[in-house]
Write a structure and sequence with these properties.
By secondary structure, this protein is an alpha/beta fold. It has six helices and five strands; from the N terminus they run αααβββαβαβα. Residues 67-189 form the Glutamate/phenylalanine/leucine/valine/L-tryptophan dehydrogenase dimerisation domain.
């Protein structure tokens, strides 16, 4: 049996891992473990067989609508400059706003972010919460940065989201996740409000 990458001890059910089913989805899956995103897609395909929906509708439900990849510099307290990598995935816009946490972890990457955004869509739909799914990630180990450095990272990340219309009360609502909490959410709120107010003031003066 293949062991999925969803955590220690996690195993994909045998019923999902029929060779015919997996081969139709991923030609290379039998060469090793499925990725997190592949595992989510396998579960989706299994459930989709029971849904009264056309293939086009199911493909639309499965697809990640938007993935934003960011890179920006951070000047650290010792004077060195580090390039920070970050993501925001908006899985489904079938209902707005989309909602999903922002995590800070050294293993953050695009496929994981899209997988978690998809799971948020499905979780909201299961309990009839009127949000689409989203997820954000900043590829850093937060324990290795001082408070001022973490604040600079979160504020710059928020600034980039605002510039690209990837955050807002009617569009995309962030939340705490692994490596983030109330302090990071407060930084996000302040930066978002200040930046939007500055843009609105500039536009009103033109």
């Amino acid at each position: 049996m293949l062991i999925g990458s969803l955590g220690k001890g996690f195993r994909l059910p045998r019923g999902i891992l029929s060779k015919q089913h997996c081969t139709s989805l991923y030609s290379t899956i039998w060469q090793g473990e499925p990725t997190f995103l592949e595992a989510v897609d396998i579960y989706f395909e299994k459930a989709a067989k029971l849904a009264a929906a056309t293939p086009d509708i199911l493909n639309q439900i499965k697809a990640c609508n938007n993935l934003l990849k960011l890179q920006f510099p951070l000047k650290r307290s010792d004077g060195t400059v580090q390039l920070i990598e970050a993501y925001r995935a908006q899985h489904s816009h079938h209902r707005l706003p989309v909602k999903g946490g922002i995590r800070m972890a050294p293993n953050v990457e695009a496929n994981e972010t899209m997988a978690l955004a998809a799971l948020m869509t499905f979780k909201c739909a299961l309990v009839d919460i009127p949000f689409g799914g989203a997820k954000g990630g900043i590829k850093v180990d937060p324990t290795k940065y001082c408070l001022l450095e973490k604040e600079a990272i979160v504020r710059r990340y928020t600034s980039e989201l605002v510039k690209k219309s990837f955050i807002g009360p009617a569009l995309d609502v962030p939340a705490p996740d692994y490596g983030t909490g109330p302090q990071e959410m407060a930084w996000i709120k302040v930066r978002q409000i200040n930046q939007i107010s500055t843009v609105e003031q500039r536009n009103s003066n033109n």
